[in-house]
């Protein structure tokens, strides 16, 4: 009998599909991850698992799970999984690309506008009873219309974000490992080196995946090169940013503000200095958080598990 471990609570319609494939062990919490020790215990006789970015898949996991055939990661990124070890243990790893692209790009633009127009600060001002009269520069923000927007990482999400800027008459710069001619032709984006992107952009938006090349890419030197009134947005991965450097850049007005949907450590610790800064808007990693998108992500995970267990192949395998 095949066993499938699911590390978060998911709707019954998806559990029903998995139960047609084998015995399902699900952690019945939507917001709290399955404890590590519980996961290691449940995975011992498992054939498949459906996980989130909260689960770290390393040597300890593979040693504990000799029967494991497939890991379905409910995310586009998979930096929480050691792919080389997975391949060495003949375990197929899958992700959920494409289905969350539009929702994440939509959230990115929402976050950009919220920071630029000081929406969160203004709402708090009203709710705290501080709004007594109108002022000509009360919560005066920054125009996205006509601005230069620099996108770091012109993948699917970067392109979808850029596509949403067409109505704002922006100039779009981008930096990528390689040029993306389709984005240049369709969106009018201009490829530049990283330093030019930092120096010329009014908004710098990170949509890149975490790799050895992108980790800590936004460090003290990077923030020093940005305009003093620039806004930094990150909807890529938290470890791409040196958060100590970001705090210093905000503290010394080297940049104007930031909006983060991802952080190095999630959830953020409550003594993190970013939480004391009005210039920082921080969201709980909700880039793909629409019902339709999350349903599609889970369905793709289920399809990948079914494909591997029944036919030995997955729709979106990421390792060799």
UniProtKB/TrEMBL annotation:
UniProt KW Disulfide bond keyword: no
Domain D-isomer specific 2-hydroxyacid dehydrogenase NAD-binding, chain residue ranges per copy: 110-287
Keywords: Oxidoreductase
Ranges for domain D-isomer specific 2-hydroxyacid dehydrogenase catalytic: 4-319
Disulfide bond among keywords: no
UniProt cross-references to InterPro entries, sorted A to Z: D-isomer_2-hydroxyacid_DH (IPR050223), D-isomer_2_OHA_DH_cat_dom (IPR006139), D-isomer_DH_CS (IPR029753), D-isomer_DH_NAD-bd (IPR006140), NAD(P)-bd_dom_sf (IPR036291)
Source superkingdom: Bacteria
Family statement: Belongs to the D-isomer specific 2-hydroxyacid dehydrogenase family.
Protein name from the UniProt record: D-glycerate dehydrogenase
Organism: Staphylococcus marylandisciuri
């Amino acid at each position: 009998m095949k066993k499938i471990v699911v590390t978060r609570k998911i709707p019954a319609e998806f559990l029903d599909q998995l139960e047609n494939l084998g015995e399902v062990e699900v952690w019945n919490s939507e917001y709290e991850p399955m404890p590590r020790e519980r996961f290691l215990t449940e995975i011992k006789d498992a054939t498949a698992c459906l996980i989130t970015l909260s689960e770290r898949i390393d040597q300890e996991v593979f040693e504990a799970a000799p029967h494991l055939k497939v890991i379905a990661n409910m995310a586009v990124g998979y930096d929480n999984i050691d792919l080389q070890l997975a391949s060495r243990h003949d375990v197929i790893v899958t992700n959920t690309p494409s289905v969350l692209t539009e929702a994440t790009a939509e959230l990115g633009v929402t976050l950009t506008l919220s920071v630029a127009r000081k929406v969160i600060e203004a709402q708090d001002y009203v709710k705290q009873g501080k709004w007594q009269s109108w002022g000509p520069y009360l919560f005066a923000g920054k125009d996205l219309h006509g601005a230069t927007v620099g996108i770091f990482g012109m993948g699917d999400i970067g392109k979808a974000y850029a596509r949403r800027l067409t109505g704002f008459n922006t100039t779009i710069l981008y930096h990528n490992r390689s040029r993306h001619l389709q984005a240049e032709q369709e969106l009018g984006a201009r490829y530049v080196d990283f330093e030019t992107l930092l120096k010329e952009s009014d908004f710098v938006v990170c949509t890149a995946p975490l790799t050895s090349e992108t980790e800590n890419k936004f460090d003290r030197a990077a923030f020093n090169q940005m305009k003093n009134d620039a806004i930094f947005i990150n909807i890529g991965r938290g470890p791409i940013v040196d958060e100590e450097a970001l705090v210093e850049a905000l503290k010394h007005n080297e940049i104007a503000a930031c909006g983060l949907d991802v952080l190095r450590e999630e959830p953020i610790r409550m003594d993190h200095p970013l939480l004391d800064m009005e210039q920082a808007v921080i969201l709980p990693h909700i880039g793909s958080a629409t019902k339709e998108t999350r349903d599609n992500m889970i369905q793709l995970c289920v399809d990948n598990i079914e494909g591997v267990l029944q036919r030995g192949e997955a729709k979106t395998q990421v390792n060799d």
